[in-house]
Amino acid sequence: MKNLPPESKSLWREKAPQSFPALKEDIDTEVCVIGGGIVGVSTAFMLARRGIKAALIEADRMGAGTSGYTTAKISSQHGLKYSSLIDTFGEQEARLYYDANEDAIAWMERMCKKLAIDCNFERQASYVYAETQEGAENINKEVEAYRRLELDGRLSEETELPFPVESAIMMHDQAQFHPLRFLSKLLRYLEVENTPVYENTKAVDIKRGKRPQVLMENGNVITADHVVMATHYPFKDLQALFAARLHVERSYAVAFRIEGKIPQGMYLNAESPKRSIRNAVDPDGNRLLLIGGEGHTSGQKDDTLQNYEALRQFGLEHFKVKDIPYRWSAQDLMTLDGMPYIGPVTPGKEDIFTAAGFGKWGMAMGVGAATIIADHISGKNNPYTKLFTPSRFTPSQDIKNAVKENMSVARSYVKGKMDRKSRNKLEDLANGEGAVVNFDGNRAGAYKNEHGEITIVDTTCTHMGCELSWNNGETSWDCPCHGSRFDVDGTVLEGPAVKPLTQLKKEEPK
């Protein structure tokens, strides 16, 4: 079948990691790590290896967030990043950014060997390629940045892609892997070391005091010396103004079985719309081709199936496709200045930490973040601490991009509150469809499942009150302001929101 799969399903989550119990009591520990993705699991693992008592909690299943829906490139080549980093931060800081990622890749490779992790970790060359003259000129600027920073890469006019390119910049010895298999082995280590791990344990608040306390949805409390918010989007702001300093994008991936040779290497184009290309291994050991891209601001597009379709068409145009077994999407956070926020949320306080804003490159940088935070907690110096501190201020980028981002949020907020023309009639909904409707004279969200059962929710986001949009590709209600996502019954799928939507009505099929 060359059609898209009817439902979104990630290749990496074909087989979920081992399961863990939910927290059912109050506990006291040195560190509470919130979030079961690459940052959270790696942080708990590093702390356990240093003999520091930690507890790891996850609102859903381990790897159920962005780490389970990535393209899983482990790379220091983040598009045409280094010329812009030099312009914003200078050469020394740009080189530190590269070194932080390279250190993380090397650590992951060491752990794969040391723990015998079967996660298809493979060193691959990484390319950014141009198909236009403008793209080639931007690549030339990046080549100059590589030269100034002495990065391990070069200009290349040859790739294994089945279409011509104007030019490409290649970085040696990058990597790719299966993220959940990697995390599963780290979790197994935590089990052996008696580090408590809890799933279906949702943190809804953090209270500061002599020692911070993490409050769960079910009423249980974890008291700790340190708390790590490894929750993708920090759900507790603590006056750090993350809502004004983070931009949320959603992007898509489609997996293809193809005839003929699958290109070696990892690829990203220099132009828009983005096209990310890599090979992967399916559960039966067969090679797949992954094509990703089509990014847009989260919650600002209803027909996201069009994004999947664009990737499908790209695959059909350039490869001999046999079938399409998987499609999935993920959310990514961008900071104002292009550098992730990693470290203490509040300057001068070592009690609560976060890691956010990896800009679509969270595999290597997520491990780098775990190292920085583990070093903070264990009192070890880290050369990258200052570079990524969440409290930094970069005038040239922060002011300009903060104004731009907050104008976008304001427009989305006002549009949602004032828009009445786009409301649909409830009776017009077909099975399997969702839409914004009029319900008792008010804006509401309705979804009719395949059996004709209708669920109606209040579409006001419980984070900061923006009005949600329907996402037909993932069957969810998405926030255009800060990226919170909700299931059709109102359950929170992604933060920063922690409270579910109000369910207004559930109607059995007639």
What percent strand? Answer: 25-35%
- The dominant shape is globular
Radius of gyration: 22 Å
CATH architecture label name of the largest domain: 3-Layer(bba) Sandwich
> How many distinct domains?
2
Low-confidence parts lasting 5 or more residues at pLDDT below 50? Answer: none
Name of the CATH homologous superfamily of the largest domain: FAD/NAD(P)-binding domain
Protein name: Glycine/D-amino acid oxidase
InterPro entries: FAD-dep_OxRdtase, FAD/NAD-bd_sf, Rieske_2Fe-2S, Rieske_2Fe-2S_sf, Rieske_Fe-S_prot_C, YhfW_C
Domain Rieske: 421-510
Keywords: 2Fe-2S, Disulfide bond, Iron, Iron-sulfur, Metal-binding
Q: In a nutshell, what does this entry contain?
A:
With 510 residues, the protein is an alpha+beta fold. The chain has helices at residues 38-49, 82-89, 91-114, 133-149, 179-192, 242-245, 305-318, 362-378, 385-388, 395-418; strands at 27-34, 54-57, 73-74, 122-130, 153-156, 167-176, 197-198, 203-207, 213-216, 221-229, 246-258, 266-269, 275-281, 287-297, 321-335, 341-344, 352-356, 433-439, 442-448, 454-457, 469-471, 476-478, 485-486, 492-494, 503-507.
Description:
- The protein has 510 residues and is an alpha+beta fold.
- It has helices spanning 38-49, 82-89, 91-114, 133-149, 179-192, 242-245, 305-318, 362-378, 385-388, 395-418, and strands spanning 27-34, 54-57, 73-74, 122-130, 153-156, 167-176, 197-198, 203-207, 213-216, 221-229, 246-258, 266-269, 275-281, 287-297, 321-335, 341-344, 352-356, 433-439, 442-448, 454-457, 469-471, 476-478, 485-486, 492-494, 503-507.
- The protein folds into two domains: 11-395, FAD/NAD(P)-binding domain (3-Layer(bba) Sandwich), CATH 3.50.50.60; 426-507, Rieske Iron-sulfur Protein, CATH 2.102.10.
- The strands form four sheets. Strands 3, 4, 5, 6, 11, 12, 13, 14 and 15 form a nine-stranded mixed β-sheet that branches.
- Strand 12 (266-269) and strand 13 form a beta hairpin.
- The longest helix is centred in the first third of the chain and has 24 residues, at 91-114.
- The model has no long low-confidence stretch (mean pLDDT 93).
